[in-house]
Amino acid sequence: MAINLELPKKFDSTVERTHLAAEHIFRPISRKYDKAEHEYPTELDDLAKLAKQGRGSEKAADSSSSDDGPSVNGANMRGLISALEMSWGDVGLLLSIPGQGLGNAAIAAVANPEQLEKFSDVWAAMAITEPSFGSDSAAVSTTATRDGDDYLINGEKIFVTAGSRADHVVVWATIDKSVGRAAIKSFVVPMTTEGVTVARLEHKLGIKASDTAVIRFENARVPAENLLGSPEIDTKKAFGGVMQTFDNTRPVVAAMAIGLGRAALEELRRMLDEAGHEIDYDRPAAAQHATVAEFIRLESEWEASWLHTLRAAWMADNAQPNSTEASMSKAKAGRTVTEITNKAVEIGATAGFSETSLLEKWARDSKILDIFEGTQQIQQLIIARRVLGKSSTDLK
Fold first, then answer.
1. Which of 66, 309, 347, 366 is the most exposed place for a label (fewest CB within 10 A)?
2. pLDDT confidence band for 56 (50 / 70 / 90)
3. Compositional bias (Basic and acidic residues) at which positions (predicted)?
4. What are the pLDDT digits (tens) for 133-142?
């Protein structure tokens, strides 16, 4: 039985529209904002308006009939495709588009219907990491204390992507430290809330078009209904509710890595062609030029990453638990994109190390894709627990 790995035709418009934006908006200003860290890319304002219109038409398409038959899913796959194509243009600029923050994915993953409606038009950053921990999300120490109809949030969050630009931030905080991870909840906090301050902006290795902020919360008062999902503490479920966020966002980060990896592979192919090294898929790799053999190997790793990511998104769209697959896609794609971009710089030699092309920038940008949303080591730990049937207590 043949397996068709082509994307459904209903996604064609998404691929075309987002690739055009990446090619004609992102690529021309990519170097400009790499050199102008913390300067807001004003060129993205019109793109955000078009993206909002496009999302409205896509929702209608997903709920109507197409050549593939009636469809009621596809939101995760569409987001994945958009991230891939946009990242082919520039990862940092993708992370700077108004209305498309990582916090929006958290809202989509956890919010109830009323909250989805209430926060449908916000631009939300996501604040998880703290000075005392990195990828161990269960170590959250920021507190949310009930005070009448509100919660008072206190703590400090670091590495908040779009933290100084978004109008809201989704904050992970504990409502009862004595209970442990089961008490960790996520809250939607307007950035204009009294007690919320941006302490500083980070200077980074890559994705410089995107700002990364430190945010402090000092008795920041938010309505109780801004707690995403249920306020009940379920010790059996632990903090699975907020962790659903990662099941949605990790495949998207994997897709970002795949888009950037594809850009680097295309540039490497162009350089090999210019050097007269033909890539022949009908001949054994070992019988071809060493750089061609390396290209074929890297391309096969890229394909494997893409298939992992497709599966994770498909499972999410079909209401299948995908925590393992989400981590697999993130781990594979994150590791692969750093290898592809660094090898491209190495093979490109002078051209790869200079600013004559975007290769050296892509190598710098790629590293974060193997770090945020859970490092390579964290993903491998999660996968091992799932495969071996171990708990976080059994396998640390």
1. 66
2. low
3. 52-61
4. 766 666 899 9
